[in-house]
Amino acid sequence: MDTKLSPELLSLLEVQSAPFVLIDEQYQIVGANQAYCENYGISQQEIVGKHCYEVSHRSDVPCHQHGEDCPHQAVFSTAKQHEVIHTHFDRHHRPEYARIKGHPIMGEVGVRYLGELIVPIANPDELNCDEMRMVGHSPAFLHCVEMLARVAESEASVLLLGESGVGKELAAQYLHKRSSRHDKPFVAINCAAITETMFEDELFGHERGAFTGCIGRKQGLFELAHGGTLFLDEAGEIPLTMQAKLLRVLESGEYRRMGGTETLTADVRIVAATNRNLLDMAETGQYRLDLYYRIAGIDLRLPSLRERRIDIPALAETMLKRITEAGAPRCKLTDRALDKLMAYDFPGNVRELRNILLRAVAICNNSVIDAEQIVLGSSLNNAPQIDASPVLPNSGTVQEMQKVVAGIPITQLEADYIAELLKIHHGHRRNVADILGMSERTLYRKLKQYGLS
After folding, report:
1. Which region among 9-18, 21-30, 119-128 has the lowest average model confidence (pLDDT)?
2. Residues in domain Sigma-54 factor interaction (predicted)?
């Protein structure tokens, strides 16, 4: 600890339970409490004299030179408190998202310091699932992470808004992990994937004999999620006939299994997500307004990828690492490939980026992904589907014959491509279906069509 600091400043450091540091006008640390030193893995004797940016950002230059909102710059230029969200690196060089509260602190003989209080928001591992991870340092992304961290502490229902592919299920999982219910179940349902006739059975379950062919009791998702979080993805697709029943259980906390007489209690936190405007749907009678207000206790919009383009390089690197962990060869993007990604609008957002990279990994040469392997848009998905066994006509024009014959090599190319993808991904059909931009069911039909396994 810097003994030149006044007793008042020394006391200010030690009364802070969260990491706290004093920084002079030249970005040099003049004092830090034990929590700050432990967080960044430097002793109190070693930390004095180091630049703040080399400790927390692991950088050689101040953060404003990287385009970030710098609390040091703001506090010393305005003499006012300034608060930002930054990506810092802990003692193990792992990134963590933190809220930085900068305060002007006056020392002896008019010397001004920056007092920084560090409030950790999230470890990126919490923004993670088997296939994707929420990564970034753009202002839009960091603001979103901060809001998620604040909302997670509440018991209120949450409605996640945003375009398709922005990572709403990842956000829902993060809300659960950071909540008081983190040690209880997280149960998800895609409302668009359930037929209207099966919706009640999925949510509430059934008793034996509830309907023809029913031979046993089934627990519904409310029962499975008891004590935890129930995630209603694509909440705008809930059938109108089911909305009243869903509203009733959300209001009373009580429900019955289909065919049952026992009243059960549902202790769940609802997190819903949609890319539709539910208020507009309510005005046209497609959605119950009272249900909207029940699930939208707090609404939170997730930014699109084009709103945070500067996150694309870090996202792409993280996704490529995840893809190669699944058995594909380790690949690297060239500058030309990265420039092509940065210039694209990504209507499918993060999910589309992942699919583009999966496809690029499959077709690149020598584990290097260049611009030619970055296939944007739906050009591959729109390729014509041609029968594997075309029948040659007995009569017709030369042009008709040429069209049919041309289908044979195109079909063979598709079969070879699918076979190669299956080999690379060790027969993992879901990964291959994602690359091809089709459902697993469609892929299964093609496997049968081409005699692949």
Report:
1. 119-128
2. 134-362
